[in-house]
Amino acid sequence: MSDSTVKFILSEKDIPTTWYNIIPDLPFQMMPPLHPGTLQPMNPGDLSRLFPMAVIEQEMSSKPEIDIPGEVLDVYRLWRPSPLFRARRLEAALRTPARIYYKYEGVSPAGSHKPNTAVAQAYYNKREGTRRLATETGAGQWGSALAMACSFFGLECSVYMVKVSYDQKPYRRALMQAYGADVTPSPSPKTAAGRSILAASPDSPGSLGIAISEAVEDAATHDDTKYSLGSVLNHVLLHQTVIGQEAQLQMEMAGEKPDYVVGCCGGGSNFGGLALPFVGETLKTKGSGRRGPRAIAVEPSACPTLTRGVYAYDYGDTAKVAPVAMMYTLGHGFVPAGIHAGGLRYHGDSPLVSALFHHGLIEARAVKQLPVFEAAVLFARSEGILPAPESAHAIRTAIDLAVEARETGADPAILIGLSGHGHFDLAAYDAYAAGILEDYEHPQDEIDRAIAELPVVNITAGEAS
Amino acid sequence: MSDSTVKFILSEKDIPTTWYNIIPDLPFQMMPPLHPGTLQPMNPGDLSRLFPMAVIEQEMSSKPEIDIPGEVLDVYRLWRPSPLFRARRLEAALRTPARIYYKYEGVSPAGSHKPNTAVAQAYYNKREGTRRLATETGAGQWGSALAMACSFFGLECSVYMVKVSYDQKPYRRALMQAYGADVTPSPSPKTAAGRSILAASPDSPGSLGIAISEAVEDAATHDDTKYSLGSVLNHVLLHQTVIGQEAQLQMEMAGEKPDYVVGCCGGGSNFGGLALPFVGETLKTKGSGRRGPRAIAVEPSACPTLTRGVYAYDYGDTAKVAPVAMMYTLGHGFVPAGIHAGGLRYHGDSPLVSALFHHGLIEARAVKQLPVFEAAVLFARSEGILPAPESAHAIRTAIDLAVEARETGADPAILIGLSGHGHFDLAAYDAYAAGILEDYEHPQDEIDRAIAELPVVNITAGEAS
Known about the structure:
Helix content of chain A: 40-55%
Largest sheet of chain A: 7 strands, mixed
Strand order of the largest sheet of chain A: 1-4-5-15-10-11-14
CATH architecture of the domain at 6-15 and 69-111 and 234-464 in chain A: 3-Layer(aba) Sandwich
Oligomer: homodimer
Number of strands of chain A: 15
Structural class of chain A: alpha/beta
CATH topology of the domain at 6-15 and 69-111 and 234-464 in chain A: Rossmann fold
């Protein structure tokens, strides 16, 4: 009547004690971040207004492994190690010879993978005397993770929340407030960046780019305050590698080497956290004849950064106060459609994920909103867990691969990164059920226009965009 | 900077393979359920229109242990064994010498303990050829659990959802629909019970009592359909004993015998599931001089069934079509205030929990809404998990006990049943933060009036109410 549940549980002693840093294993040099004013490479001092030194060191580190502090491990134990399941019921529903596995991060108290880095960032800030953290959030997944982490370490937390989400998604706002955070709709009159947007358009719905500008300005103009980012940067992906390291152990328990590792990709922290340890293993055993898994980053067709953007230096935010990074980008002026995967709407992408993609070490696919929700509902009815719309992008691609396998007679092992649950996203499921959700593919001319506004960069170490 | 996380993880082989039936260990006879038409004891045949035979046998069984079918265990493994934590950060925040533990059921895909029985009921129905299950739900916790269970076993699921919740809490409705359930606002024109309510008051907001009447009528009038209830009945509490059995093992791992076992109590399935194995252990070792834990059922002051109701035979529903049970009740005409712990608003209580309370084997307390939310927020900021408002009733009482211990110098071990997360209840947290939530204590004259409508029962085995 039902196919059997196969779950791979690790014990507490299997929680990784180091984060994996892929940088020393890369067969190429990473391009440095640039100062937004001078467009010249930033030094640690430039970053110290925004981040604590331990985080800056991690951002630039060439150490292959970085110890996870005991205080961070201690909080990780609330939800780590996270479970890995074989999706036997989904396989049966698809009648596929493929073996599908999923690593589930929705068991954290905030319901997603975000606390893996939020806790680390809050810890380092507390240790270095920061009193308050400022950050931005779109739909609220990141903001609620940081709010929780700050409550553990006794830090104040100020979240600039994109105004349209603040108004339309009161549940995530209420969660941040329950954790004690101060939540401000962005654009706000609290910052110069916010005031200038409001002066030009008093009814601005806000955007992630604007909210980043506000949070960065807040941190830069308050001595006791630092800035915290939930994706994109090297140290964020570093902290998320606990996911992939655990998954490696669990796939070994399953007697498998995955053929595909599939994760949704917005800023890149979920995808990177899962995929980097696998990609690193492939790089380390290069020449041994061992073939590593194909790592696939899945993004929405509405915000196709890797699949249709350019690899260039671009600003991370609207007001051009955040560091400029070498990344795949749709241009800092790009405004994606209001799809329900709010965590996948950033115009750029992690420099690490971008570089891996540029050098052919990972792949990327873009999928449309309706097939994503179709996959999400099939997954919920088969496996019980209702996925976050972001995570469902990876499920869609895994299902496509599994159906393909059925047709070609292959029997691959597919590992999905299931980054969070969808209990905060029921309005989106409701819209899908009511048939009022739309597919959306961003028009090429708009992408071209946004990309045309990229800065022209000439640095010794760099290349012109 | 933070106190350490102490988590007690069981392995898969520690998932109980039998449900614990307390009935043969009771030092008294349970009073039989009565037919709502004749007010005479029901026989298995009377119940067979509503339930599959396996469930009816469990409802009346005197076997001390009942095997959990492999197919049910197999689904349990998706989230069981559930974790048990020591709340070190909460203890530190309270500066209490008490040791506080919590058993967390929010790790299930539906976010609560309800799937423990939903899966079993769906399995037995499927095995006996049922095609469709009908049930009722208030806020939607139960409905979403049964919808998920039905999707696993290929059953149709029809949920009558209290209309005011259907309108005000679209997220739980959307979750049920994502699992494939058919959700109808109650009262509805689908049933005679619903039509008669609508004729009298077209704008009726509905109630759990009305929704039960509709679901029972639906099952009784369709050959392929059975009825499923998420609390109150013996077999439901039986299925939930996996919680308490696991908690016993985990408390042993912690080297503790709890002094207090505290659970919130509406219909009684969460409280019973946690407490019955502990109470049973005490009963079995009676005379050995061993003192068992004090088991405390916590209910809202707005619906104080155990603390201010009477122990009597009463109807389980508004239309008087469901079985009549001997229980603590506020009268089937009782309408509680619209508190946010929707799962604790039933006028009656589990006959098993009621009998244990009547015979002094468990205790009960009522707590008000505002102190409950105050406790919930303190818990979230200390332990990370945002509790469901229902579960927070137990947290409130545990905190009261811990503060009391600080003052008396005692050092008890307190075990909380944390039945679910509050990710669907953020509107309530929002109202609390905004200061617009009200305390509510039900007026005694209204309780007296509702109790005065109880049926007069004269049966051989029974006693007049």
